Backbone:
């Protein structure tokens, strides 16, 4: 099969950083706790930013930070221009942006336009007065004995719940997340203001939640089928509630806002659709910059599935002139090590993805080879688990707090005195690097690259960004939220009843308990908001830094080489498959004449492949090529010159 024709598709006169960016996703609640209360926060993230920069990432994407009802991990927003006090303040976001820009990192936040919290002021007023303007901003239907149609919640059960006065309201997720009515112009205007609030603060872009949703069938007709979480994405079975044609007018409007800034902002949409040609439409030049496709993430360990998905995705995005964004893991999916069945396979998949043309999105902890963690039922927070009565385990296992320091309580996730910066170790040349066509690699922190395709680089962990496109934020506008300790009114006369299948708010101010260190006396530390399993310290950053065989080192080396070699990430690709072996040939769009070939053996038998020099391997036991041949063991990826 062939994916992208080997020709120059879309030359550009200006640098568009997002086209081949490496974006590091932070699940804020689980990344780093800066005040020792057991919950990740912005001070913790700020302290760990040098680590993210040391990976070679171009941007950090932060999951929702807003004041929230706590029904779905922050995706039920009460106020879109505030920060949940568990995470910090608006000033902390401003400081994060400034620190990130100094390190050469951009900051993307998460925005949730499909629904609000049921505690949002609009919904509370809609409950009080069915004739209010706010009621028209949601989907309400008159009282009846049964729900208005057959629409189902993504988390299980009907997508309709009753209000105390008998009306029905729509929620495609939990009952605490009522869907907004995007046919109401007040909704669009309010989100325009939200975008500008954060952009004016210096934020560089947004990941858009449920970007394929928003609009619903105006006649509220039944869906032809029911969505199954085993599908690659939504399709004809959900035609009344997803991918409505008028959704694209919203993204064109948002793109105009992004482009109105001197340094244009960027958007990446969660577009969980099965048809990749439809996903590509969301990334047309006047819409979003990236549109996530999740087929690769949802594919089993199978060469045919991987090869066909890569080829089809490259074709779909090439058709609209957009880069393909690649993702193998996120806060909604079990960790790759567990899904694929081994660390070796997870490393091989990661090295394949990091070579592909387009942007690469990494979920925090992937670079450590974290597995899906077991979570006791009593500790589970995810509404998927509770609304399915335990039939679906939910997503808690991929949201376990990060392991930083193997000798510290909570594996370094939180400390009472606050965190110290962890810079990480600069990537060293791979031990099995044998490419004679390239001068010996040196640490980009101390020596400029001699690769003519790569400009001199400085270590982003120690030098401020020199990108003129990223000025420091100078907008003084900000206002912290009103007293966060006082929740919005939840008068039982006007609030919907508590859904028995959904756990109470997961807003945690601190959990009692401590974890011992290793032989030294340490202050008591609250337990993390989700329990870390036994053996979590084995994956800690301090255990992997400087270890040439560690998963962390492999990621650092891959991202370094991605910057040094133009065919990687920015090149043009041709994808072929022979049995269980996939071959991806990459050439530069301009300048660098030598192609790079990626081989991945997804089978159970060792094979021999053409190779004259080895750039990088997913496993440290891969020998260099001999007489133009390389022995490729099962579950292994290599970057080579053929």
Residues:
């Amino acid at each position: 099969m062939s994916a992208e024709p080997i020709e120059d598709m879309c030359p550009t006169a200006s640098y568009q950083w997002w086209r081949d960016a490496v974006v590091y996703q932070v699940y804020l609640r689980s990344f780093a706790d800066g005040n020792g209360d057991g919950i990740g926060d912005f001070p913790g993230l700020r302290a760990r930013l040098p680590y993210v920069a040391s990976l070679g990432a171009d941007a950090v994407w932060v999951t929702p930070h807003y004041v929230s009802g706590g029904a779905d991990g922050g995706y039920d927003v009460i106020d879109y221009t505030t920060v949940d006090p568990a995470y910090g303040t608006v000033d902390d976001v401003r400081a994060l942006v400034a620190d990130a820009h100094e390190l050469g990192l951009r900051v993307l936040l998460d925005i949730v336009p499909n629904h609000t919290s049921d505690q949002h002021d609009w919904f509370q007023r809609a409950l009080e007065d069915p004739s209010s303007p706010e009621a028209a901003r949601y989907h309400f239907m008159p009282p009846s004995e049964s729900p208005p149609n057959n629409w189902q919640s993504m988390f299980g059960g009907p997508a309709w719940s009753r209000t105390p006065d008998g009306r029905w309201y729509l929620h495609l997720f939990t009952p605490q997340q009522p869907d907004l009515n995007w046919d109401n112009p007040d909704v669009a205007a309010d989100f325009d203001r939200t975008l500008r609030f954060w952009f004016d603060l210096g934020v560089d872009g947004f990941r858009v939640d449920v970007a394929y949703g928003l609009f619903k069938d105006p006649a509220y007709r039944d869906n032809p089928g029911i969505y199954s979480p085993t599908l690659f994405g939504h399709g004809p079975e959900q035609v009344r509630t997803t991918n409505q044609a008028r959704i694209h007018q919203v993204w064109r409007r948002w793109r105009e806002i992004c482009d109105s800034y001197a340094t244009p902002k960027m958007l990446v949409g969660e577009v969980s659709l099965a048809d990749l040609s439809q996903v590509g439409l969301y990334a047309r030049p006047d819409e979003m910059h990236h549109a996530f496709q999740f087929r690769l993430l949802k594919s089993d360990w199978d060469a045919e599935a991987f090869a066909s998905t890569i080829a089809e995705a490259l074709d779909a995005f090439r058709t609209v002139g957009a880069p393909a964004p690649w993702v193998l893991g996120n806060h909604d999916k079990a960790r790759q090590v567990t899904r694929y069945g081994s660390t070796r396979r997870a490393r091989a998949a990661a090295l394949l993805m990091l070579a592909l043309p387009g942007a690469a999105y990494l979920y925090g902890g992937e670079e450590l080879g974290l597995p899906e963690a077991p979570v006791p039922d009593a500790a589970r927070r995810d509404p998927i688990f509770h609304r399915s009565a335990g039939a679906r385990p939910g997503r808690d296992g991929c949201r376990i707090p990060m392991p930083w320091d193997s000798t510290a309580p909570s594996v370094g996730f939180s400390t009472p005195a606050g965190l110290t910066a962890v810079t990480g170790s600069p990537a060293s040349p791979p031990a099995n690097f044998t490419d004679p066509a390239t001068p010996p690699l040196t640490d980009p922190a101390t020596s400029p690259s001699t690769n003519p395709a790569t400009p001199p680089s400085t270590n982003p962990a120690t030098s401020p960004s020199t990108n003129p496109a990223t000025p420091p934020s100078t907008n003084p506008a900000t206002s912290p939220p009103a007293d966060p300790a006082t929740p919005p009114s939840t008068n039982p006369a006007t609030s919907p009843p508590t859904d028995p299948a959904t756990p109470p708010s997961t807003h945690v101010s601190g959990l009692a308990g401590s974890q011992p260190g290793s032989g030294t006396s340490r202050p008591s530390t609250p337990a993390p908001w989700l329990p870390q399993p036994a053996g979590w310290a084995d994956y800690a950053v301090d255990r992997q830094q400087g270890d040439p065989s560690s998963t962390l080192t492999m990621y650092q080396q891959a991202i370094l080489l991605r910057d040094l070699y133009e065919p990687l990430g920015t090149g043009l690709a041709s994808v072929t498959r022979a049995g269980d072996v996939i071959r991806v040939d990459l050439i530069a769009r301009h300048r660098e004449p030598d192609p790079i070939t990626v081989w991945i053996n997804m089978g159970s038998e060792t094979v021999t492949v053409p190779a004259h020099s080895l750039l990088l391997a997913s496993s440290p036991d891969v020998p260099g090529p001999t007489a133009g041949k390389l022995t490729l063991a099962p579950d292994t990826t290599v970057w080579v010159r053929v």
Notes: Confidence is low (pLDDT under 50) at residues 1-13, 436-522.
